[in-house]
Input
Amino acid sequence: MELYSIDISSFKADGGAMFGVVPKGIWSKFFKADERNLISLMLRSLVIKTDDRVILIDVGIGDKQHEDYLQFLHIEEHEGLVSGLATHGIKPEEVTDVILTHLHFDHCGGGITYNWNREPIAVFPEATYWTTERQWDNAVNPNPREADSYLPENLLPMQDLGLLDFIERPGSFCEGVDIRFVNGHTPGQIIPIIRYGSKTLVFGADLIPTHGHIPVKYNMAYDLEVLRTMKEKQEFLERIVENNYVLFFQHDMLYECATIVKTEKGFRMGTPMTLREFTS
Ligand SMILES: [Zn+2]
Output
C-alpha cells in the first residue's frame, strides 16, 4: 500500500464558527485569525494506492462555482487535485474509488467539473463515488441549517452520471481500509481507518478537522448535534490512544497527522508528523 496526501487548496472560514462556544482567547492559540476573524483551513485529500485500487478520500471544493463565490471563500490554490495526483504518477482515470466522507461543499465538489459546454462531467470517470445513503438523503433534501453547505451542482450529477454508490454498513471497505460512521456533525459521515503495515491511520474528516479540535469540548458550531459529536469523539480518541493510532487532519494548515495523548486535562495532541513521516 502507498499513501499520499494532497494539499488541494486552502480556504477561509470564520474562526468563531469553527470553534463553537470555545472563546477566541483559547482558539486563537491554535489558529491566528485575520482582521475579519477568518482562519485559513486546508483542503487535504488522502490517496490510498493498493495492488488493485486507487482510492481518494474527499476531493475539495472544485471549480464549478462562480468566481465571486470562490473569492468569498478566499480559495488559495496549493497542489490542486488532479495536478497533485499527477505528482504521484496517478491519472484521473486510474482512480477506482472516491470515498466522500460527507457531502458538504468542501469535501465533495472536486469530483464533478464542467466541460467546455458547461455540462457536468466526472473528474474521475472510472471511479465509483461512495457515500452513505443517510448522508445522501440528508444532502438532497437539506435542513435549513445545512442547506448552504449542499450545492446541487456537486450532488445531482453524481447520480445522473451513474457514479454514485452507497456504503451500506461499517466494517471492511477493502483490504487495509475500514469504515466507521458518525452522526454528530452531519448524519452518516464516514470515518475511514487505514492499516499501513503495523500502523493505523484514522482519517479525522469533520469529526476532528484540525489539531485544535482534539479536546472533546472544542467543536465546530456547524455540528448539528454537538453532544453526539462529543460522545463520538471521546470513543474515537480513547481507541486512538489505546492502540497508538495516528490521526490525519484534513483541514489543518499546520499539521497533517499526529498522535494523541490523554492527560489530566483530557485529550491533547502528542507528536505531530507529516504523512511521509508516518509511512517511513
Ligand atoms: Zn462538514
Summary: The chain has a mean pLDDT of 96. Residues 102, 104, 185-186, 206 surround zinc ion (CB under 6 Å). Residues 119 and 169 are 33 Å apart (CA to CA). The chain has nine helices and 16 strands.
